[in-house]
Amino acid sequence: MPVSPKSLRQRVPLQGRRILVVEDEYFLADDIGNALRTLGAEIAGPVGHIEDAVEMLHDGGALDAAVLDVNIRSEPIFPIARELRARRVPFVFTTGYDRISIEPEFQDVPLWEKPIDIVAMVQNLASLVRSQSATGDAATP
After folding, report:
1. Disulfide-capable partner of 41 in 5, 36, 70, 141 (CB 3.0 to 4.6 Å)?
2. How far apart are CA 88 and CA 67, in angstroms?
3. What is the H or E stretch that residue 47 is in?
4. What local confidence, expressed as pLDDT, does residue 10 receive?
5. What angle do CA 130, 131, 137 make, to 5 degrees?
6. Chain mean pLDDT for the chain
7. Percent of the chain whose predicted confidence (pLDDT) is above 70
8. Taking a C-beta distance cutoff of 8 angstroms, is the pair 122, 36 a contact?
9. Which residues contact 95 (CB under 8 A, 6 or more apart)?
């Protein structure tokens, strides 16, 4: 019996999607990348420096979503978040801090506190990507 496109999207909901991962904890970045790949995503990164994240934003490749650690080597990720928001690219934050560490303009962004339930976080991101696709709002660089 052939697999329907809807059934395939349910099993690999991020198939063909390019997801930026900005995380400075190597093992966590690797775990997030692997979980996203399981859902069919192509990983941009993971990167552990703000400069590398900026490079990924400007490399000419479209991004469909992102996972952003709030503090990358003591630097706030908010400039990257602002650019993603301007492009209408959905993202989630990860952090070892409380929500109070999030700037007011990003209070609506899902926040995953460490230790992260990676499976739930990745499913949350997939749902954001689906919602963005359904509204047709995704923008390319």
Report:
1. 36
2. 14
3. strand 42-47
4. 55
5. 105
6. 88
7. 88
8. yes
9. 69, 70, 71, 101, 102, 111, 112, 113, 114
